[in-house]
Amino acid sequence: MAFEPPQRLVRALGELPEEARDTQWLGHLPELTEEALHRRQVVAQRVQAPGGRSSLVLLVRYADGTPAALKLAPPGARPDRELAALAHWGGFGAVRVLDSRHHETDGALLLERLHPEVSLRSLPDAKALLEACGTLRRLWVEPPPGHPFETVAERTARQGEALRTAPAEVRALADSALAVRAELTALPGEQLLLHGNFRQGKVLAGERAPWLTVGPDPLVGERAYDLARLVRDRLEDQMATSAGAAGARRRVHRLADSLEVDRDRLRGWTVFRAVESGVRALAAGRRGDAELLLEFAAWL
User: Which molecular function terms from Gene Ontology are attached (predicted)?
Assistant: First the structure.
């Protein structure tokens, strides 16, 4: 199957720090894809577009017509951790792994086919948040013994390095986010398996269950960290309302209460994650995204 890697993937990989870019993987992606298809004896139907920012997803089928999805990600994205999380969830609240026999060879994942064009973002926001919370409840379980996942403290310490060198224009917000992170990680807390990148667009319609999550960037830690990304979902819509900062705080309280998460910890992680994403967007030249994220963090 001849194809060009989706431009969204190419742009996203290009925004990574030079030492983190896997240009060799991207350059060989057509050949890697053909080899992965051949190993699993599946036939490509089409590339899922616009696709993700860290992987290529092909809609495929077995010889008997059974649909599936083949996902390829660069080694730096740690697809081994994604496989470990999906295997541990066993299809409960998440997409199911159909075949992992060749994963160590090429890092690809053969997954059940969901409906990529129908995510929770297709629902009104209130209904989408309700379904999202129900999905998160299923994912928050004890991690497997000897798991390969990093912790919230480890991931945010690494992310904090970029905040310490943030430009002067966002220095005050970056310092506030670092202080919040230090307070939140001062004492050991919950150690649950988290999705790591959970938002409405990561929950797709399925056949065996109405909604199933995809694309985890798994780690271990407290629920408030996982819920924080959901708080800023549909950010442009939130920013366009007249509710302003009061509306953002109400959203934090509503989500915290619905999942019995501490309000202050959810607010703190929401601030940290928004500032970290905003500084990263600024470094990548996405000033519009950065301004939205940083203004939202300032509201909280």
Answer: kinase activity; phosphotransferase activity, alcohol group as acceptor
